[in-house]
Amino acid sequence: MPVASDLNIPVDQTPVSDPRRVLFGVGINHALHDGYTDLIYVLLPVWQNEFALGYATLALLRTLYSGALAAFQVPSTLLAKSLGIRTVLVLGTLLSATGYAFAGASGGLVGLCAALALGGIGSSTQHPLASSMIARAYGRSARGPLGTYNFAGDIGKASVPPLIGYLLTIWNWRSALWIIAGLGMIVAVIIAYLLPNDRSLESPRRPERSRDDHPGGASQTGRTGFGLLLAIGVLDNSARPAFLLYLPFLLQEKGAALPTVGLALSLVFLGGAFGKAVCGWLGDRVGVTRTVIFTEAGTAITILAVISLPLAPALVLLPLLGVMLNGTSSVLYGTVPELATGGRVEHAFAVFYTCTLGGSAVAAPLLYGRLGDAFGPAWAATASAATALTVIPLMLALSPVLSRGTSPTKM
To answer: Of the given ranges (48-57, 120-129, 303-312), which has the lowest mean pLDDT?
Structure first.
């Protein structure tokens, strides 16, 4: 792991903190921001009635938040070089909370759009910086804690949208957003207290390999490995929303009513939360390559099974499908520090999240949406299964790069 001075991040002489405290702090932050991202789905019907919006405009509102979140990953790491990781995480959480406060105070569509973009910019800080904080705190044992960190995000997805739904039953949407904004302010104070200053997360410097011993330099291997990891992450993140986009329609074709569709999505998300928590630790114990091949092959098989099976057995499979769909991501996140070229862990996480989130937010819906229009939901969902399978040869190509690394990753 790089030390803070390698990254030009301001430091002080704070003693080393308990890594569990770091994990708890960034986990709370992740839960809030992922909840902030997904609560928009609950508010879209409300905004449709309030501002007389069409579906294209509603899609734009969602894209403004997720697009800003993806686009500002790298700038947030650059800012951390000047202000420090903890400071940027706190400011990002305050900015997201302020965005929702402004959304509650907006008088029209333009103000709402600006507020959502502001909130997305704030949320862009936490993925790369929090992930690198965990990587520094835990060193070579970071893969499991990174899985726990990702699990915390799913807890936010499962709790914040229902919370806003409940608040909408007792207050108007503007008041509900002010409550949610206040929650973000509280979380900002909590993480400012829990997270240490950057020097406390320094890890011992690893001996650098001589370029004479390795013609071409280890950096070329790192760049090649990181490029493969990016491609795997984009494909994995494309298959997931592509299938979830069509799952409600597939279930309705099997005779499911709307309440059953809602239950089905809950089953997938619960399985996904479990998958993120477990597969990070699994990758640390049985190996990255084996775990990714298992989850991607399992994703393809369970998608095809859900497409072909009657309603009842398809519902039974959905938690397992959720485990497979989301489990790969924890393993991939844990591999980013191993392949960060030049020790630039924050930058590597920022690029990784930018590409994978950008592909999920933009490319995948456009591509698979056209497939669905042309061939129907079943064939489009089948294409998402095929996308998951394309990860396997890329993972086999990445495996030798990982085996040459300094990390004791099992293959």
So the answer is: 48-57
The share of the chain scoring above pLDDT 70, in percent, equals 80
Distance, in Å, from the CA atom of 100 to the CA atom of 179, rounded to the nearest integer, reads 9
Q: What is the largest CA-CA distance in the chain?
A: 69
- Pair 126, 26: CB distance under 8 Å: yes
Provide the token pair at 324. Answer: 């497979």
pLDDT bin (cut points 50, 70, 90) of residue 32 is very high
The residue count for the chain = 411
DSSP 281-332: HHHHHH-HHHHHHHHHHHHHHHHHHHHHS-HHHHHHHHHHHHHHHHHHHHHH
- Please indicate whether the domains covering 17-201 and 219-403 agree at the CATH topology level: yes
Of 264, 278, 263, 261, the C-alpha closest to 324 is: 278
> Superfamily assignment of 17-201 in CATH?
MFS general substrate transporter like domains (1.20.1250.20)
Domain residue ranges of the chain, discontinuous segments joined by + = 17-201, 219-403
CB contact at 8 A, 100 and 177: yes
- The predicted model scores a pTM of 0.66
- Please give the class, per CATH, of domain 219-403: mainly alpha
How far, in Å, CA of 146 to CA of 136, rounded? Answer: 11
Q: For residues 12 and 10, what is the distance between their CA atoms, to the nearest angstrom?
A: 7
**Phi-psi bin for 17: left (phi > 0), alpha (psi -120 to 50), beta?**
beta
Angle at the Cα of 382 (from 257 to 280), degrees rounded to 5?
A: 90
Least confident of 87-101, 174-188, 394-408: 394-408
Helix %, strand %, coil % of the chain (to 5): 85, 0, 15
Two structure tokens written together for 268: 């997938």
* Res 365 pLDDT > 60: no
Quickly count: other Cβ atoms within 10 Å of residue 373's Cβ.
9
